[in-house]
């Protein structure tokens, strides 16, 4: 017997789709609006009335942005940080999850309790700075990688996924003489691509968007990542924009080189920093959708 939807169910489905479409369009439009402003003449954009396409198309905003002497080094550092930090974080987190999966691990309950208990409290920024300084991480590239290698929340997610893998696979491999490392790398990791891709996406985005570390723990301009550079540019351009609005004299207007205003430059920097994440996400979308379903379906 074929189930036939009632009229109320059809209207409910249609209203859901309409709501999701409108919500999606409103979310995408915010990014699209920033993109349009970044390609529009800065002085012309101050007049308003720009909604769907640039009124006076220009590349001057991006030319000024890429003219920043620190932007290329900041991008290289962010790519290196996101790549190395994500790889080490996913590797060590998955290894810790596999260890906690073993019920015969000595002190397993105490380790889990200790890791969970420490996630409930934070010492604050000053004790954290003192700790980083004591172990020599201040003004070092390792300040971006080592603290982000551990996440108890990610460990729990990966361990939950590992629990869904049949235990008979590891038992069969162990009977054939395989050790824990071989079982981990040849059985658990290949069967856990969805959750690993999901965690990798979370960690990579966190590394890419983190500006606090570079702003508070690094003074070397050569070790400033793209997110911190963006934050500094936003702060500087906001100050200049307020100054231009309060006093529209010729000296302040002369700062708008090639009609590039602080607001337009800010939009260009936002697009530059956001584009790499948007380029990576489609390649992980398939695994990401599978990964977020962890624990929602039980056989």
From TrEMBL:
GO terms for cellular component: plasma membrane. GO terms for biological process: transmembrane transport. Residues 75-284 form the ABC transmembrane type-1 domain. Keywords: Cell membrane, Membrane, Transmembrane, Transmembrane helix, Transport. CDD domains: TM_PBP2. It is a multi-pass membrane protein. It is found in: Cell membrane. Its main location: membrane. The chain crosses the membrane at residues 12-36, 79-101, 110-129, 141-162, 183-208, 264-284. It comes from the Bacteria. SUPFAM superfamilies: MetI-like (SSF161098). The keyword Membrane applies. InterPro entries: MetI-like, MetI-like_sf. Belongs to the binding-protein-dependent transport system permease family. This is Sugar ABC transporter permease. It comes from Paenibacillus agaridevorans.
């Amino acid at each position: 017997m074929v189930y036939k939807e009632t009229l109320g169910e059809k209207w409910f489905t249609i209203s859901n789709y309409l709501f999701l479409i409108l919500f999606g369009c409103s979310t995408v439009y915010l990014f699209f609006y920033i993109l349009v402003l970044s390609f529009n003449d800065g002085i012309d954009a101050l007049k308003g009335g720009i909604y769907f396409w640039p009124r006076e198309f220009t590349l001057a905003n991006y030319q000024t942005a890429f003219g920043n002497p620190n932007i290329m080094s900041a991008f290289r550092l962010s790519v290196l940080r996101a790549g190395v930090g994500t790889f080490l974080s996913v590797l060590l987190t998955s290894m810790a999850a596999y260890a906690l999966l073993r019920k015969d691990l000595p002190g397993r309950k105490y380790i889990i309790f200790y890791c969970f208990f420490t996630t409930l409290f934070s010492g604050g920024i000053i004790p954290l700075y003192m700790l980083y300084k004591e172990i020599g991480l201040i003004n070092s590239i390792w300040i971006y990688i080592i603290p982000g290698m551990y996440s108890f929340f990610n460990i729990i997610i990966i361990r939950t996924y590992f629990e869904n893998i049949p235990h008979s696979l590891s038992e069969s491999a162990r009977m054939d003489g395989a050790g824990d490392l071989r079982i981990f790398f040849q059985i658990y990791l290949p069967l856990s691509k969805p959750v690993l891709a999901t965690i990798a996406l979370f960690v990579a985005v966190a590394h890419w968007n983190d500006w606090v570390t570079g702003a508070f723990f690094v003074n070397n301009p050569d070790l400033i990542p793209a997110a911190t550079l963006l934050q500094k540019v936003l702060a500087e351009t906001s100050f200049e924009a307020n100054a231009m609005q309060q006093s529209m004299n010729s000296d302040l207007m002369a700062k708008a080189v090639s009609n590039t205003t602080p607001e337009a430059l800010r939009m260009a920097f936002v697009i530059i920093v956001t584009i790499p994440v948007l380029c990576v996400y489609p390649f992980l979308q398939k695994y990401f959708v599978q990964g977020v379903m962890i624990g929602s379906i039980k056989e």
